[in-house]
What does this fold into?
Amino acid sequence: MKTVLSLLLLFIQYTVMSQDINLLLKEADNFEHLFKEEDALNKYKQVLLVDGNNSKALLKATELSGSTGERQINKNDKRIYFESGLAFAERAVVADSSNPDAYYAKAFACSKMTEIETDNKKLYGFVREVKINADKALHINPNHAKANFMLGKWYYEISIMNEAKLKVAKTLYGGLPDADLDKAILYLEKSRSIDQYYVLNALTLAKAYKANNRPAPEIEVLKRVVKLPTRTFDDTALKAEAQKMLQDLE
It folds into this structure.
């Protein structure tokens, strides 16, 4: 009788906990739609206090730590957000190593760390980790829009990296894969074919076409970018940047 009662209590506790998590996730999602990213991030953190392995909360906490940190003026504040994002991403990989979202999150977080890391060895370690984890995500799901974006962005950024930085990478790690704007465009175009409303991807694609001296597709992409719906807090600024690029071309 005690065993049955214990099982019943555990079931009730699990049911209540699940309801609480679903409510918190719904509230976080609502905050995101209102572009209140800090509030959404705090809600996802609350989810993780109840369920530390919740894959959606870990992914969103990683992304929102990155986007919120990006807007911090103070360098120390920026680092705190980016390092928190990396910690969430690492937890996501441990929680479910078969989930492509986890490896995308790790690639995303490492990409953010490259923006603040001053130690060359650590910096190029993060650069390598971006590609490694984006590749892992795409090995599991080749049609993962954001993982395709991360890999395309990686090739684009390597392609425009100055010679001095490439020499440092060669000294530390024997170099990086060959710069290849065609590969950058390939992955960014694939991401666009999967998610045509992904503003950051489309803007990066336009920049890749510009770097590859292809003004016709650059203009075509930019004209699409400025008409895309605003889905995230940063999309307004990204579309304004696309509009400025268009004006400069005209």
Summary: The chain has two domains: 20-175, 195-250. The chain has a mean pLDDT of 89. The longest helix spans residues 2-33.
